[in-house]
Every structure is written in C-alpha cells, then in structure tokens.
C-alpha cells in the first residue's frame, strides 16, 4: 500500500471547505482538470453517492467511478475508487483553526494487480504533487467564497 497525506491551512470556515470537497456536482468549478461529472445514483450528495468523474491530464481523458463511503458534515468525506488495478481510498478531513481551518487529504493506494504493486510506490511523489495541487485549488475556491460572503 502507498499512503500519501497532504495538508494546508485555508482562511475559510470549515463548512465552506467541506462543501468544496464534498459537493460532487461543483467539483469541475474547483478543479479545472475535472471536465465532467455523471451521477450513477439518484442521490447527489452524502454517503452512498456514486459518480463517474472525467479528468483531463496532458490532453488525455481518464474516467473513474467513485463511491462516497463516509460523510460527516463539516468534518470529513471519504471517496473510494477501484481503477487501474488499485483501490484509491481518499479521505478529506477538515479541522477548525482560528477563523479558518486545516484541510488534510490522505490517499491510500491499495494495488490488487502486479504492475501497480511495482509502480505505485515509485509514483508517490507524483501522487503527492497532485494532492497538493488539489489542496491549493480548494484553498483558492474556498477563500474566494468566504471573501464574497464577508463582502
């Protein structure tokens, strides 16, 4: 298993940050790499929601099906995908800090095929950079929403 954890401080209330990471329908507005969301359940939020996410990376599209397996409002959300020979288990945790919060994204990559068992540990730095970039995008979006709410 390969585990990567990245955290960042965000100058926005936990409820705004939680909405940014858990509102599946709004994910393309936060991360421009996400080009399409298709719901696979009638449910659109909360535990039990299933959706298909299409990402664009270096001119190529990648489609992943995700399940929301845990949802604690304003605290954490977990999304799990089984893709490319690996179970990707990602938890977004929000902890209050002063007027803002800390967002931690922890991803466990559990390979169930030979090739990912060999390559995932080698790609840990790539995974970390991707998660750090997502934290930055959530920060920019959340701080913008918080600033608009104060205005």
Task: Please give a structural write-up.
It is a single chain. The protein has 151 residues and is an alpha+beta fold. The protein has helices spanning 14-22, 27-30, 114-119, 124-150, and strands at 2-10, 34-39, 50-57, 60-72, 76-83, 86-97, 100-111. The chain has a 7-stranded antiparallel beta sheet. A hairpin with a 2-residue loop joins strand 6 and strand 7. Helix 1 crosses helix 4 (124-150). It is globular, with a radius of gyration of 15 Å. The mean pLDDT is 95.
Comma- or semicolon-separated keywords:
151 residues; seven-stranded antiparallel β-sheet; 4 helices
Total count of helical runs of at least 4 residues: 4
Helix content: 25-40%
Approximate strand percentage:
over 45%
Major pleated sheet? 7 strands, antiparallel
Roughly how many Å apart are the termini?
Answer: 45 Å
Encode the helix/strand succession as letters.
EHHEEEEEEHH
Question: What general form does the structure show?
Answer: globular
Query: Which structural class best describes the helix and strand composition?
Result: alpha+beta
Lateral strand order in the biggest sheet: 1-7-6-5-4-3-2
Mean pLDDT: 95
Question: Which blocks of ≥5 consecutive residues have pLDDT under 50?
Answer: none
Give the SSE layout.
Blueprint: E1 2-10, H1 14-22, H2 27-30, E2 34-39, E3 50-57, E4 60-72, E5 76-83, E6 86-97, E7 100-111, H3 114-119, H4 124-150
Antiparallel strand pairs: 1-7, 2-3, 3-4, 4-5, 5-6, 6-7
Quick structural overview:
Helix content is 30%, strand content 45%. By secondary structure, it is α+β, with helices and mostly antiparallel strands.
